[in-house]
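Problem: given the chain below (566 residues), write out its structure.
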Amino acid sequence: MATSLDDSKRPAVVALLDLDCWYVQVEKKKRGLSAEAPCAVQQYGRLLAVDYVARQFGVERGMSVDEAKKLCPNLLTPHVPVIGADVAWAQDDSVSVSRPKDDAGKASLDLYRNESDEIFSLLAAQAPLEKASIDEAYVDLTDLARGELETVLSDPGAWAAARGSGKWDPDAEDDYDALLVAGSSVCMRLRAIVKEQLGYEMSAGIAETKMLAKLGCHKPNQQTVVLRRAVPNLLADVEVTAVGGLGGKLGEEVKEKLPRVRTAFDLATVGPVELRRLFGESTGDWLYAVGAGTLCEDVKVGYKPKSLSAFKSFKPCSNNDLETLGKWLGILADELVGRLKADEARWGRKATAGCISWWAPNGARDWSSGGKQQKRNGCSRKFALPNGGRNSEALAAEALNKLRAAAVSGAGSISRLQLSIPTFVDVQATSVIDRLRAAPAAAPSSPKPSLPTAATSSGPTPAAAAADSRGSEEAPIELSDDGGDTTEADEPEPPPPSATPPRSRPAAASQPTRRQPAGRSTEGTPKLSEMWKRPRTWTCPNCTYENDNMLFLACEMCSDVRPQGQ
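Solution.
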């Protein structure tokens, strides 16, 4: 029996862990409800999440509470937490609350977000984890599976559990099948830890790539091993628009240009050459990798949110209705400040800037700071955080000032607002003096060595793997915790020495010799003519703020030290 694996190929074992009916699980645990009781979480009279017991009665997500109760009279309908004025009814412990949409309050997902963070923290202590959403995470089980391999090879129970009810059985003679079975055994223990310590159930898909693990995940409370030799059959059963990244404009473009392509596997039959011709080299290669099942994406370790945001949709109001806009911004600021304080305590960082965004009805912007009539998804303005974002009233007032300054009198309306924190900085050494003291000493002028280029490798060629069918569940609506990353600017290379030798002046006995002061060197010092050519502004690499004062050693927005060469 083959028991060794080729480290040069380094096959991966990735698990997609999906919390089943997440909002309902949290509410049932909070209220002590039975697992057999039909339950659906509502938001302003509409069902946001429905458990599998209620689905047996025909109850579906998006139904009104009254309509759902006609199908299932015993349906329990707790309301999501609500923040804002005059919303005491939403905090009622009654599980049959049914109210119309109340414009005085805002739904909050903090309860569900905090519970999932606790689960992800527990799992991240066991294996590398990437948070995908409020109820999903990818876990890299490769190293744990390799450590489990020898034990699993002699454990018939592990092979029986991995086989389950699938059409294809794991092959003990196949090295990678054995590694998948080992990963399945590890994943089963991780799910058991979450159930025992926190009381929540989750489903899992286990495969060589993140995409296959996602597509092969069955629900509820199931675990599926996706074998290589069944990948074509799995992809042939998946609609092309069901693949991550193909549910929007790109998916529509694929359907328009390739009307015969129905499933993900159909993309591979088109061929890489034709896909490149139709969609460009990069997108064409990506589409072919999706269809062939070779799309390999690394598990990006970390579940720290890159940004924080709070938003609210409401009845359209004039952009000059400062009372209504101020009320909503106050509610959003209250929520965001609370999350900021928890974020600082958990991750040891503080916010460096805020951002206010707004949308006109139907997603069209009909006014802007310049008065131009444009149709866009929205408009936003960045601003410095007053008091470091610790005071909700000051935060709301600053956001309202930015909004008021951008509005054109009587030119449009607003139906959606969002407050967000896009950038952070570590709490340690946040002052300019601390940063300057912590900065490394300048090295002698010398050519900067070039960084080695990372070797790239394509994903393994598909052989096969997989599951007979897919379990699917509509993802719950959630607030976005994703944002852009910030990177530090590279230190500029010293200017090359001039190729033209300096002009010599005829020696004269009467001319005094100019001496260089001790301890001072002119090597690398730019000429005065070159200094005039330098830009008069510099961009902060941390918060991207455009500083217009070259005398400042730190960013006016976030106090980040100005990089050398700017």
